[in-house]
Amino acid sequence: MSEIIIKSGVLKNLGHLVEGLLKVKTFAVISDENVAPLYGKTVADSLVGAGYRVISFTIPAGEKSKCADRFFELQNWLAENHVTRSDALVALGGGVVGDLTGFVAATYLRGVAFVQVPTTLLAMVDSSVGGKTGIDIPAGKNLVGAFHQPKMVVCDPYTLKTLPAEVFSDGCAEVIKHGMIRSKGLLSTLEKSGFDGEIADIIAENIDIKRTIVQRDEFDTGERQLLNFGHTIGHAIEKLSDFEVSHGQAVAIGMCIITRAAVKKGLCPVECLEILERLVEKCGLPAKTDFSAEEIYEAALGDKKRMGDTITEIIPREVGFCELQKMPVSELLEWITSGQSNT
Ligand code: NAD
Ligand code: GLY
Question: Which of 83, 129, 82 is nearest to 105 (CA)?
């Protein structure tokens, strides 16, 4: 797995950090229009200071940039700038920049190295780790992509200081997810002190949970699917809302719907739902949606986790413990309907 560094202020040392790891001449830094003005110069100066040639590209911010047009635009830009197989890309930004850049790196010249420099909580605790890269297509989220591990992940928690509150909340959804699937201790910490503790420790704990799972199932054929808790419904809601509902918000709603249904079916104690709903509220995330169960179900039929007529869902069984459960796709509608309301 990739080397992961978490340290406040580390951005200005990026050039030296990558020196021992990558024998490259050029770094192509890809960022978005919000992040580039804040951190682009620090990163470029650090890489230039270590002797590299740096070229930079800025994409519009937001989920809509995770698309085929931006993907090909970047490939073309790399080729026009004579980026070769012995060069590398840097993804400087949130999950959108990371997923898109990772997929460009996985495919440009049939694969070049890349470094993740995540600048959102979500990207630090989740998307920059584990090597899933990709783009959205009109039929659905993340339907085109590749597994391509970054050579290094460099998290600078200082960058979180400029994050808008609602974007920080999106990351909280993935932190809650990690607690729900594998860590009662993390849930207790979040209940007691929320995100007031040392953020670097929270990031490190979450990366540990994700890394342990990914090391056992890098290519997502079994245990890794646990990391998709709340995501089948979440991706459907993102698509239905034309990405007005953010990834973190949609995942929070998805986790709540599945957990409500699991409680009603007697599969997990009501305490699981109570803790989840308290944390979701505390983080300013939604627990419900106005989309109907039928709309969500229809939008979820294209989910990657579907295999023919079956789909694997992630079901809470105890506080801090989820299991995978294969079900006929048709059963999902009943789960969503049941999980839409508390009664
Ligand atoms: P994002 O990348 O769109 O970033 C959210 C917003 O924050 C953007 O407007 C961005 O410009 C801004 N921003 C980023 N860093 C900033 C900073 N430090 N200061 C100020 N503004 C900043 O969204 P996200 O929530 O980071 O990522 C969501 C994406 O991640 C989704 O596409 C989702 O599918 C993907 N994801 C991927 C994985 C994976 O394993 N690959 C896992 C989870 C989520
Ligand atoms: N975020 C899901 C995964 O990395 O598998």
Answer: 83
The answer to whether the beta carbons of residues 221 and 256 sit under 8 Å apart is: no
Question: Does the CB atom of residue 228 touch ligand 2 within 6 A?
Answer: yes
Q: 3-6 and 310-318: which strand pairing? A: unpaired
The best mutation among 181, 220, 238 to test binding of ligand 2, ranked by most ligand atoms within 8 Å of the C-beta, falls on 220
Say yes or no: CB of residue 171 within 6 Å of ligand 2: no
User: How far is residue 123's CA from residue 293's CA, in Å, rounded to a whole number?
Assistant: 29
Average pLDDT along the chain: 96
pLDDT attached to residue 296: 97
DSSP 10: G
Q: How far is CA 256 from CA 120, 167, 198, 236, 326, in A?
A: 23, 19, 27, 14, 19
Quickly count: other Cβ atoms within 10 Å of residue 219's Cβ.
10
Ligand 2 atom at minimal distance to the Cα of residue 225: 5
Query: Is 95 exposed, middle or buried, given 0-12, 13-18 or 19+ CB atoms closer than 10 A?
Result: buried
Q: What is the dihedral of CA 290, 294, 297, 298, to 10 degrees?
A: -110
Q: What are phi and psi of 112, to 5 degrees?
A: -125, 165
Which carries the bigger pLDDT value, residue 140 or residue 335? 335
Q: Which two tokens mark 131?
A: 């090597």
| Closest approach atom of ligand 1 to CA 62 | 3
Mean pLDDT to the nearest integer, 7-35: 95
Q: Which residue has the tokens 């007529």?
A: 309
The half-sphere exposure of 117 on its side-chain side, counting CA atoms within 13 A, is 32
Q: Which residues pair with 32 in a beta bridge?
A: 59
